[in-house]
Design brief:
Blueprint (H helix, E strand, L loop, with lengths): L3 E5 L4 H12 L3 E6 L8 H9 L4 E4 L5 H10 L2 E6 L6 H6 L1 H22 L3 E7 L22 H19 L4 E7 L1 E3 L18 H9 L6 E4 L11 E2 L1 E3 H18 L3 E5 L5 E2 H12 L5 E4 L14 H7 L7 H16 L2
Parallel strand pairs: 1-2, 1-4, 2-3, 4-5, 5-6, 6-11, 7-10, 8-13
Antiparallel strand pairs: 9-12
Helix pairs in contact: 1-2, 1-8, 3-5, 5-6, 7-9, 7-11, 9-11
The chain binds UDP-4-deoxy-4-formamido-beta-L-arabinopyranose.
The site of UDP-4-deoxy-4-formamido-beta-L-arabinopyranose (WQD) has 19 residues, from helix 7 and strand 8.
């Protein structure tokens, strides 16, 4: 049986780390990426890490004829769908573009897979589908909702996959709900490198550490949390990537769909992360308390037990690993 996997958005932050773990697990991997949120030197860096040639098609998953060409040129066994837009704030400014990229993009991929007779897909979802959960840790059975167009697109995609699998048993889906990915590859050759001002906490802190940004704004310290700042379940991107390998293996072995949280089960505050980063870089990082960011919730962290039961997945790396690997990556990146 073919072991070739198609990664859409495979040059991106999570996609590139998943590429490395899939290759290490013995798969063949093909990437499609439009490089709208990935640097063009990522495939070259992946070649250094994996020691082999990278097959990468530049293009958009909305281009059905390009997808048909990829499926014709490679014996694809399954796909992992990362290609999507993921900034909450931006989604409120351009909701149509988010629906086009995230929902129409998924449908375009599914239609091409069906034309090619490929019915196994791992889908990149998000804890954002839980909204502001009533109880913690949040389990996969918690009610789903959305409070912004980005969350709407992720929930719509999940429900679309559920309906397809319910009415067409040929399909097998692994729906992976990420909590907060952070960190970088141990080699320091790939990591999170947003093109513009970061949205997320760790890339923002890392740019303060390199001096590219002046200070960290802490969005609120009056939340009902231990130190008043927001609490999230940060998961090392390498752990997250390995969760994708286990999801694919389970789908290909059993043909049964699954939906699981990919988190650590442990929440850390903004100040926890800041102090961990200071330990990693070895100096204090300037910061100031700012008002809360609209739409933020106080606290969320996941119950990781279903991923362990269904996939045998358990995160191995902690906050200090995430910060040390990020600092190694960003300080190398700045010097290249
Ligand atoms: C984390 C904490 C902020 C920046 C979002 C998406 C989610 C997923 C991950 C895609 C919060 C605080 C942040 C800063 C700060 N993305 N913060 N200063 O909002 O939990 O999740 O990204 O799947 O779907 O919703 O992540 O990193 O933006 O914020 O104080 O400059 O850090 O208030 O408490 P978030 P984040």
């Amino acid at each position: 049986m073919s072991k070739t996997i198609l990664l859409t958005g495979g040059a991106g932050f999570i996609g590139s780390h998943t590429y490395v773990e899939l290759m290490a697990a013995g798969y063949e991997v093909v990437i499609i990426d439009d490089f709208s949120n990935a640097h063009r030197d990522v495939p070259d860096r992946l070649e250094v890490i994996t020691g082999g040639k990278v097959t990468c098609y530049e293009g958009d998953v909305l281009d059905g004829s390009l997808l048909d060409r990829i499926f014709a040129e490679h014996d694809i066994a399954a796909a992992v769908h990362f290609a999507a837009r993921k900034a909450v704030g931006e989604s409120t400014e351009i909701p149509l573009e988010y629906m086009q990229a995230n929902i129409a993009g998924l449908y375009s991929l599914l239609a091409a897979m069906k034309r090619a007779g490929v019915f196994t897909l791992v889908f990149s979802s998000s804890c954002t589908v839980y909204g502001d959960p009533d109880s913690l840790p949040v389990t996969e059975e918690a009610p789903r909702s959305f409070s912004h167009p980005y969350g709407f697109t992720k929930l719509t995609c999940e429900q679309s996959l559920e309906q397809i699998a319910l009415h067409d048993p040929r399909w097998a889906f692994g729906i992976l709900r990420y909590f907060n990915p952070a960190g970088a590859h141990a080699t320091g050759l790939i990591g999170e490198d947003p093109n513009d001002i970061p949205n997320n906490l760790m890339p923002y802190i890392s740019k303060v550490a390199t001096g590219e940004l002046e200070r960290l704004g802490v969005f609120g310290n009056d939340y009902p949390t231990p130190d008043g700042t927001g609490v999230r379940d940060y998961i090392h991107v390498t752990d997250l990537a390995q969760g994708h390998v286990l999801s694919l293996k389970a789908l290909l072995d059993s043909g049964d769909s699954h939906t699981v949280n990919l988190g650590t089960g442990r929440g850390y505050s903004v100040l926890d992360m800041l102090q961990a980063y200071e330990r990693a870089c070895g100096f204090d990082l300037p910061h100031e308390i700012l008002p809360r960011r609209p739409g933020d919730i106080a606290e969320v962290y996941g119950d990781p037990s279903k991923a362990q039961d269904v996939l045998g997945f358990r995160a191995q790396l902690g906050l200090d690993d995430m910060c040390a690997s990020s600092w190694n990556w960003i300080s190398r990146r700045k010097n290249t």
